[in-house]
């Protein structure tokens, strides 16, 4: 039995007339799961969506990450309403910006100074400019499968090996720009060293998602981030962490301050045992969760590097909407919720229950499924091998994912329409939601 989504289908036809592909971001289209109308949502509250036909869904998309408190959380909503009453945009500094900068710096001490922007894309793009300004070098090294937004330099795919330059991943990105980017496999220190041997003198920065969220959830191998930082710095380049997904995701802080990471010797981490200095980046890009559901991005890092930015330094970055009072006050309210005791323990508890339940259901139905989980975020890969890098994430059954996605949707469960995206728990999800989702997954696996 499939749900009636006739209204979504009508709206999609209409949207196609006016909006490119009917969507304002390609990841929202159902292209990767067999095409057709995406679901047009009308309302979201707590852990649920209601679509234009009145169907209810449990939401694990969480807007691709920002909605960690659940939709329309009363504390965040109140902050947005108050901000709207006080006027939404000033074009002047406000006191809230200082409070928010202080909050973020306290949670992520590598940020001596920050700047607020409007999206993760902008944050990443600017860290690259600042790194280039600081080092006087032009090349960037990134890791295959990590997504860093849609600016030119990070829409570049690997050439034919770590010692070749990149090729444009999108029309409209000039080959000359792709020549500035080297892509190496995630987790592969030998490849990074090889690239640095060849291009190191002209590499401004190495950019990485320290815990990957864009080809599933992938933990770095023990020692990888330490080695990455060491190799990068040996060649005089800067380390940039893209923490757009990871900041405030697994604990009140970022991946760079996360003591749950395995240690280099393979032993489990005990809180505080990790040498954070060894994995602290020079620059960090933030976004998603820190806006509490409103548009935001931020970047920051070491004082001497950040002081390259205008008006103090020669690297230009600006924004009419940057640091707007509504996004800032929503962000403060969101972090106020997240710093309450027990918040991340609850996400961990729910995440473990759901991911373990889904893995067990797949096993009992004879479906090969690899589940990668960190706290309240996890990814499901239809394959019988581990997923630790982009090649392994690609080598999974996309058709099976597409069928699973639709079987779940028809049972009122909303996942991201891509085999690479994570499931995100929020503080609004309940044990009942988790139990229902496991039953639904079990039925779906039975039908695959
Ligand atoms: N970096 C990472 C790690 C991301 O996951 C994303 C978005 N998915 C971005 C940057 C870009 O952020 P935005 O979509 O806000 O521009």
TrEMBL record:
InterPro entries: 4pyrrol_synth_GluAld_NH2Trfase (IPR004639), Aminotrans_3 (IPR005814), PyrdxlP-dep_Trfase (IPR015424), PyrdxlP-dep_Trfase_major (IPR015421), PyrdxlP-dep_Trfase_small (IPR015422). Its cofactor is pyridoxal 5'-phosphate. SUPFAM superfamilies: PLP-dependent transferases. The modification N6-(pyridoxal phosphate)lysine is found at residue 288. It is found in: Cytoplasm. Pfam families: Aminotran_3. GO terms for molecular function: glutamate-1-semialdehyde 2,1-aminomutase activity; transaminase activity. Gene3D superfamilies: Aspartate Aminotransferase, domain 1, Type I PLP-dependent aspartate aminotransferase-like (Major domain). Keywords: Aminotransferase, Cytoplasm, Isomerase, Porphyrin biosynthesis, Pyridoxal phosphate, Transferase. It comes from the Bacteria. It catalyses: (S)-4-amino-5-oxopentanoate = 5-aminolevulinate. Its EC number is 5.4.3.8. Pathway: Porphyrin-containing compound metabolism; protoporphyrin-IX biosynthesis; 5-aminolevulinate from L-glutamyl-tRNA(Glu): step 2/2. Signal peptide: none annotated. It is an enzyme of class 5 (isomerase). Its main location: cytoplasm. Homodimer. Belongs to the class-III pyridoxal-phosphate-dependent aminotransferase family. HemL subfamily. This is Glutamate-1-semialdehyde 2,1-aminomutase. It comes from Gordoniibacillus kamchatkensis.
